[in-house]
Amino acid sequence: MIKRLLIVIGIVGVLLGYAALNPFAPGTPPTNIRWIKIDNQGNQLKAWDGPWACVYDKSTKLLWEVKTDMETIHDGYWSYSWFNGDLGAANKGDCYFEEERCDTNDLIRRTNQQLLCGLDQWRLPSEKELMSLVYHKGKPGDPTIAKDYFPQTKRGDYWTSASQQPLKGAFKHLGTGATAINFIRGTKANIPYRNAAFVRLVHSGFELPVTR
Amino acid sequence: MARPQQSLSWIFLHTSAIFIIILNLLTGFRFAILTKPDLLWFNAILPQGNLHQWHFIGGCALTIIVIAYLTLQMSEQAKSKQQQTAAKPAKPPSAPRFSFTFHKALTWYVYVITISAIVTGWLIFYDQQHLIPVDDLHFIVAIGFISYLLLHGGSYFIEYGMAAIKRIALPGPLTSLQLLFIAGILVLTFIGWRAWLYQPMIPLQVKQIPINHFIQIDGHANEAAWQDAPSVTVLTHGGANFDKGKTPVMIRAMQNGVEAYFHITWQDATRSIKHLPLVKTQQGWKIRQNGFHQFDEQTFYEDKFAVMLSQQCGSAADGSIHLGTKPISSKPSNWHGKGYHYTEDNSIKDLWHWKAVRTNDMLLADDNFFGPPATTATGQRRYTAGYVADGKESGAYVMNWLWYKQDIITPKRIPKDPKYIAEYQIENAIPKTLPWVISWFDYEPYQLEKDHYPLGTIMPSVMYRSNRFEGDRADVRARGEWKNGVWSLELSRRLDTKSKNDVAIEDGTCLWVSAFDQSQIAHTRHHQAIKLTISESP
Question: How would you label A64-93 residue by residue, b for 16+ Cβ within 10 Å and e otherwise?
Answer without folding.
Answer: bbbbbbbbebbbbebbbbbbbeeebbbbbb
